[in-house]
């Protein structure tokens, strides 16, 4: 393999932002016909490295050779012209256009009277067929196909522009297992046609399934380049987070179940809470110091139930009791006033307020509950920010930086700090570990356990069953917008228990099918 | 040591160059220089015993800037929420018409002033309600109010350009536009105090941060417990109220409302002042100080047009050219031009080295 000529050689890449070196002399070499993964924690510099290669950021030092020619990218167009195509985490296609128009955008077939749409769509069909996507009609509007399919269309588009390098940044984070397999099938096809693929994913299984070569980064520095097949998992994780495998295994222990004493009153007691078309009526109680997991597939209603508990959506049925008192949680303000906080799964659109600083982002919810005209005294604000920056280990430790400049995991920590600053009795965490690396994940999981130990009620929503099982006292299983089971999570319960419950329960009867 | 000092100096220069305010102030000074070349006593100030204040071209410029300061301040807050208020010019006419009409019908001058302010506030509240409660687009909502406002002003005065200059007891209003405080134009002082008060209100409470939050990400703001509707309503109400003050300034200087010309095109001036001040039309972070400087620059450009004796047909073109030049000077791309060229040269050298 080593005798291959690399298609991209990045050497000594350094990128500085005001006050911080995001990348410090990082090397990356991509070979044609290989899938290469960038590995590292949040803030390790993976995204920055990709942005250097795609021309989003200008590099301060180092060289980029594509096909042996030095390149200086002054924008994404330069990178595209050099044959580097990117499919981002959030698909960047035009949802209002048809599939074919998206695939061929900028490369439409021309006839005597301008664009020949018929030929254009035919060409799109050939490209799609090359990737085994004959089933997609190029005339269908992009918005009508699933996100997974849209991603595949984005890859087809990359093939149209004759890309030599295809960058896939977290393409699998919102896909289910089957969709991931479809994606991998196409990735293999693309790879075998001689394209170099740069792949970023937080799922280790996927890394081992699809990649040939790994480059490991930590804190903006190059650690090592290795072949995937020669590298055991614990060694890889160790290199990523700079800790030994033994230290890691400690995180893996299951939470000791919190026993509810007889006569104890729950913090939250809802009966028949629901909203038409969103989630069918649910009964639920949450006790102080308890972690309640919501398990279910994407679209099962787990997020919707969390949003109802917080008043982000208005319920249209049911009763809501807080510490024995009837309440009407109709909007987030009322929820926060009643000491309920909700951390969204959609960090970018509903979580961070990008241009505001870390400090402002941390204080804004507390400020909102106090009212616009009662500013938090500076001393108190400083203390709060200082406390959560340290407790949650937010990096970089500079609260005056705009939050949008932080990595995903650190943004997540700031948001958790935001909700903790309001001193909630019930904290709803929706996918708090999505799209963040193992190190930050473990930190956040530990925070959940610590909070419960201090007496907070926590709702933990995650698509990763493993962490739900490990952290929860009770698990509410949801399917097709119904709550289908409540599982007391003792030693006999495993991921398999939940998968079986989901698979075998009939939604309408609540009985085993 | 010397090197370090030099480095720090460079950093300071860099920071200054990338600051919009620097370029605004520079543009202002340039305009003053141009005017001084054409009219050598442009900077001259004299004391006028009749008015009890300073006199000179700069003073009349400040007098005119007061109205721009008011509408630019309101516009800044509205634009920060990713909205726009096209109705401010018309609100000026409505408020001015209300003041002049009531005054000429014998209403006490203070009551007239209050009526004018109330009318402006009411129109602002209607804008706010339409945008926040009904979720209408700010552009459409305030565009309609801009058209409707002109109509309202005409209805109030029955289509006349009501003149209240001869009405007894109108002195307080006259003073508002033409009077002096410690020798400085009263309307400018009042406008400045209001800008500072709004600034303090924004920055000493959480109002400014919440306005910015709503402008940056409305849904995320709602999830933090902020009530975006309340914020939106508030900024349009403030904008309407400040436009009414601007309307008083504009009409009181001649004690006459011109239902067609009062406040005409001034929504554009306000938007330009905000842009010159460095607040993005996409919403988010805002700078009241920047907008205030922008407002004074607008007044200065108008003064320059008069000083240079540019004929009426060419004034819009001149105005546009100056504004574009200021915006170009502020563009980060222009600031990076030098570094960009350096990088390109380095790349070429690198390519040559590889080829060799």
UniProtKB/TrEMBL annotation, chain A:
Its main location: membrane. The keyword Transport applies. Pfam families: ABC_tran. Residues 461-488 form a coiled coil. Residues 8-244, 262-505 form the ABC transporter domain. It is a peripheral membrane protein. InterPro entries: AAA+_ATPase, ABC_carbohydrate_import_ATPase, ABC_transporter-like_ATP-bd, ABC_transporter-like_CS, P-loop_NTPase. Transmembrane segments: none annotated. GO terms for molecular function: ATP binding; ATP hydrolysis activity. CDD domains: ABC_Carb_Monos_I, ABC_Carb_Monos_II. The keyword Nucleotide-binding applies. Keywords: ATP-binding, Cell membrane, Coiled coil, Membrane, Nucleotide-binding, Repeat, Translocase, Transport. One of its GO terms (cellular component) is plasma membrane. SMART domains: AAA. It is found in: Cell membrane. This is Sugar ABC transporter ATP-binding protein.
Automatic annotation (TrEMBL), chain B:
It is a multi-pass membrane protein. The keyword Phosphoprotein does not apply. GO terms for molecular function: transmembrane transporter activity. The keyword Calcium does not apply. It is found in: Cell membrane. It comes from the Bacteria. This is Sugar ABC transporter permease. It comes from Bifidobacterium callitrichidarum.
